[in-house]
Amino acid sequence: MLRFTRKTDYAVQALLHMAAGEASGPVSAREIAACHDIPVQLTAKLLQAMARAGLCESRLGSRGGYRLAQPAAAISLKAIIEAVEGAGDDTEGAAAVCGYSAPLAAVREELARQFAALSLVELAGHRAAPVRAARPIYLDNQATTPLDPRVREAMAPFFDARFGNAASRQHSYGWEAAAAVKGARASVAALVGAEPGGLIWTSGATESNNLAIKGVAEAYAGRGKHLITCATEHPAVLDPMKALARRGWELSVLCVDNDGRLDLAELAAALRDDTVLVSLMAANNEIGLLHPLADVGAMVRARGALLHVDAAQAAGKIPLDMEALQIDLMSLSAHKLYGPKGVGALAVRRGTPRVRLEPQLHGGGHEKGLRSGTLNVPGIVGFGEAAKIAVEEMASETARLGRLRDRLLAGLRERVPGVVLNGAPSPRLAGNLNLSIVGVEADGLLMRIRDVALSSASACSSATDAPSHVLSAMGLPPARVRSALRLSLGRFNTADEVERVVDAIAEAVADLRAADPRRDPETTTSTRSSTA
């Protein structure tokens, strides 16, 4: 007889999970198991059984997993039970012995009819709780980006057959690793208009920033000990600067206006004969604002100082040319442009006068003695592939992301009263939105939005639970800072996702304001008016 067991319930949950996340593509057995608290091995066996029965199908490759093989309305409970329990009938023998075979047969037939009539769609409608989406919509691409499948494919051989150390010069394993590193070096250098020979591999932008700032400060200490940066820089720049200030260097921190813009006149006034380094980011990691690098580069070069640019957020998203912009050092990170985590680079200008650096890591003399340590060959190969893709797709992707961002902002303004944009509208990264919703604190809102992954602060500093130093430096009121959200779109976001994000945020804000009318800007305004 057909039996609805715990195993069948697990199978139904797995199929409903696939149906709910159908737009997002195939899902893995591990993801389904984690989402529904089912043992992984049992989940895999159930999926294989249902695949053999034609209820779902598996997909191989970097975006592989399981998906429905037919419409949800065509999948019956009877078919699911037969797939995972078997179609055999174990009641016939007992029925014949006891003499009740005819009534039991009628019951069996009625159950079979009922199970055949129940489709996956109807099962979803009768669940006590809504089916959870496969994964939240990812809108935190300035924290990190997903690994592009093309990048993963390029990296794969270097985890396995081509595992050699690029520093091993006596055999073919080392030679092919070194050749791969050389190719990646050329690709990453081309991304930012740098010389391949001036590229130093690091573990990421934080290390690159430390090497640039401390390396220059120590190498040029005999000429001067004055450094300049900006209040809205990333902590990976501000903290090394402050560390040097504690060791005797003098630090000037430039202010910004309410839109986050740098005052070039203040920079000109801050530059001195003993200024050895100015460090400014290309694009802000919270508000996406672009600094006027061409003007800054000309000004700094004219005064004989060096210019370091943290381009972690900008590389691959806007055109960059170190030579044209008169940039001396540039920090880069692979995971911000759909490459792997744990690999970055510092691009150093070649030519006369040579930029001098004091190494911060010693032991092995790798990277011309400037950064010791065995090279992360798979990561470097991935960085190179990510850089090539970024160059090829930058123009079209920038236009596409700009359209999605504008639609997202327009949709939120239509549906949510009190939306305020933080930072100048332009020049800005195409995928960035930083906004506040009047009367609604970001942390409370994020607790209600389960189907969208976004942040209330930059990922590198949100662990401290401190208010955004960027928005605070812009002079925004504390309440507006506390209500700030960063929504950052990326390569794999779609127009449909934008509409769903607007719905999710609008519904969550409406719920919060219904629970506490003081959160509604219109209520607040009318209350103040009546009081006045």
Structure, described:
With 532 residues, this protein is an alpha/beta fold. It folds into three domains: 130 residues, Orthogonal Bundle (Arc Repressor Mutant, subunit A); 242 residues, Aspartate Aminotransferase, domain 2 (3-Layer(aba) Sandwich), CATH 3.40.640; 138 residues, Aspartate Aminotransferase, domain 1 (Alpha-Beta Complex), CATH 3.90.1150.10. Helices cover 45% and strands 12% of the residues. It has a seven-stranded mixed β-sheet with strand order 4-10-9-8-7-5-6, sandwiched between helices. The longest helix is centred in the last third of the chain and has 39 residues. The N and C termini lie far apart (76 Å). The C terminus is likely disordered.
